Amino acid sequence: MRRYCSDNTWCAENLPYEEGMFDVIICNASFHHYTNPRAVLAQMRRVLKNNGVLLIGDPWMPQPLRGLMNYFTRFSNEGDFHYYGKEEMRNLMNECSFRLIDSKKTGKHTILFKAIPML
Question: Which residues cross the membrane (predicted)?
Answer without folding.
Answer: none
